[in-house]
Amino acid sequence: MYFALTDEQRALGETVRAYLADRFDLTAVRAVFEDQHGDGNPTELWKAIGAYGWLAVCVPAEHDGLGLGLVDAQVVARAFGAGAVPGPWLPTVLAGEALRLAGSDEQRRSLLPAVASGALVATVAPRGPAGRYDPSGVRVTADEAGRLTGPALPVEYAEAARIIVVAAVEPAGEVGLYLVEPELPGVVVTGLENYDGTVRTASVVLDGVPGQRLPGSSTAVFTDLLDRGAVLTAGDLVGLAREALRRTVAYDRDRVQFGRAVGSFQALKHHLADLHVAVTMSEHAVLYAAHALDAGLADRRLAVAVAKSKASDTAREVTAAMIQYHGGIGYTWEHDAHFFYKRAKREVYSYGDPVQHRDRIAALTIGRVPSTTTDGVPPTLAVP
Description:
Blueprint: H1 7-23, H2 26-34, H3 43-51, H4 70-82, H5 89-102, H6 105-117, E1 122-125, E2 141-142, E3 147-156, E4 163-169, E5 175-180, E6 187-192, E7 201-210, E8 212-213, H7 219-254, E9 256-257, E10 260-261, H8 266-295, H9 300-325, H10 337-348, H11 354-365
Parallel strand pairs: 1-4
Antiparallel strand pairs: 2-3, 3-7, 4-5, 5-8, 6-7, 9-10
Helix pairs in contact: 1-4, 4-7, 5-6, 5-7, 7-8, 7-9, 7-10, 8-9, 9-10, 9-11
């Protein structure tokens, strides 16, 4: 079977990249990166993201969305990764997915149109301090009355969000999803320092806060939401890896050492060729994982684990090579290479690091996992 993006999906990616090149290039990214006291969400960029429908990709048409799927959303994620784009696009899209998957008709009617247009900045709080991206990592609890207590971190753009979708362990042991307004009494949002200036994160601590439950939520839905976050994060990773590789190849074609272009040296050519293969395989893995989730295929959990682990490893290696193969300039603050490296380093651990996803691959293929992960924590995998 021939499997590739459609002409419309490729056009979507080209449109996003063209806008970013013209209106929000790496010079604009640098301004956000270096403004650590700003909210990390440039107003004009966010307006454009909403106006062009890039938040509406997965929102159903009856709620003013495009009614497309995760394959289309990962096209946007790739373009944003390639541009190291700041802003709460990903957490807002995921909050919309939580509403689509588990919200009531009234919740969808009242909130999804605002998500699609960009009028509502939203985020998700799926784990607690040092928790894994699975049900075992949830540290917030819900009592019988739906009051939420406990910590969640890191939460992307919690200080900018008007709605937070909080995962909480319920009395019966299920993981439920709850809508929380950050302004409510008992909610404490504290900004966190971040080496990646293309994002803003915070801790969210709840103390008996009333949450509005998404009635269709369950542990299985929560796991599905995490998988969608993993695929979109992997899409961002392969986008930035491809762009980092493109910039590195272009630089080494022109950089001359010992009277020759550095890119002509065999050792360098071989490594760059290997990186190209790795990026290409990662792109295909992400594309298939998005399709598998859209289609509800039996191997979707495995596909997500393969995609996120492969994209994480590849982006980490490519961005490290980008710094090294740019020579001395690549190690400086003035060069753009560190934007890609720091973003990749952060996203490697978002929605499951390679160790967690390889544990999951083992569980799904041979029925067992290592007794502990690299941090000594026994793995608890949700494999519906």
